[in-house]
Amino acid sequence: MADTTKKPEAKIRKVNFKFEKPFPKHWYNDNPIATHFMNAQHLAFPDGEKFFIRSVKAFADIYKNDTELKTRVDNFIGQEGTHYAEHQKFWDIMESQDLKPMKFVDFFRATAWNGLESFVRKSLKKNRLGDKLALSVTVGLEHYTAMLAESGILNKDITKNMPEEMKDLFMWHAAEEIEHKAIPFDVLKKVDDSYALRVGGMAVATWGLWFYLAAGTVVLTHQDEDIKRKDIPKHLVSFLTNFNKSFGGTITEQFWQYFKKDFHPDQIDNYHLAEELLKGKNYA
Ligand SMILES: [Fe+2]
Ligand SMILES: [Fe+2]
Question: 3-class DSSP state for residue 90?
Answer without folding.
Answer: helix
